[in-house]
Amino acid sequence: MAKRVYVGITGDVIHPGIINIIRKGAEFGELTVGLLTDAAVITHKRLPYLTYEQRKEVLENIKGVAAVVPQEDWSYVPNLRKYKPDYMIHGDDWKTNYLSKIRMEVFEAMEEWGGKVIEIPYTQGINSSALAANERTIGTTPDVRLKSLRRLIAAKPLVRIMEAHSGLSGLIIENLEVQKEDGLHCFDGMWSSSLTDSTNRGKPDIEAVDLTSRLQGLTEILECTTKPIIYDGDTGGLTEHFVFTVRTLERNGISAVIIEDKKGLKKNSLFGTEVRQELESEEDFCRKISEGKKAQMTQDFMIIARIEEIIAGRSVQEALAKAFASVRAGADAVMIHSKDKSGTDIQEFCRLFRKEYAHVPLVLVPTSYNSFTEDELASWGANIVIYANHMLRSAYPAMVSCAKTILEAERSLEADGQCMPIKEILELIPGTK
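The structure corresponding to this sequence follows.
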């Protein structure tokens, strides 16, 4: 009977080092590849460029691979205990890199049934991290970007979205990472806000900037980033206009559009004074959603219904009724909005919504109730959190302070401490290093 051999692989980039491990592993017996799922990878690295099924198909067609099974944990140990292989194969670079702790756990697990860990010498001249980093300079395609939001929702307990209003702000979101004890923290995608887009142009946020003009700014972000984008569609306009918007956004690789159930001249929901906004009827709002879904060319694009009943002073029950109707009309997700700092109404909405729809994604925008952590929002039932305007809001006071310092000093020396070195700015731009 052939010996059982196990190797864990991400499989997004198949390079000579991976082929070497597979070849060596097959020499010891029947090789099973544990292919890390999106959910396993996303806790420590970026979402793989290829889907799980695409990566699986590649590996199944590599000589020496007998079987490919899902590895749903970043650690190899759960699968090792499940399959109890005679040998576990890994490159010897894990002795000193970020997998050193997992290495110790693997040795302990394999000893439980007398298995052996075989460490293959690291293939010189291959840097997996550099290869992964180079993917960003390669860019993406509209089809790959379009699909990535649904993949993230399926893989992560909470998808983290940050507002982008320019190519530069998009690059910050694309590249910023913070390593914490529970893994890698980064922004998963971008929010194209009508408020920040119009403000960046020096225009009021009254839905006066049309789709064609908005696409000019969006294109700047699309050209230098790879992460999914959620588009703020305001009310969506007339139904026949919304159908056009859906087709245009989908064709350009935008992952989702959010439309709100308001009508008439737009008034921002979070305006400081009491602003009464007329809401669109349930029938008209749902018809717009339904027609938008019919206009889609793929199943990947998402239409998200933004429910404004609570903002407009109506009850949670009225908000729920509109949300339920929106889902029945085809909405792929629901965004609920509130300016109550306590978050009580949002918690109640989420709890009751989850009783009716356990798996329809919920989107929260905690601009007002910002004392709650992402873990708390996820515990309410949220799938996506959007930080809707913070990049622009933080940029404005920084620019004012810098400009004022120069005016007061009558030179720019005193402003140096407030400014990022130009070299670091240029390093953000693909192709300038």
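The radius of gyration is 25 Å.
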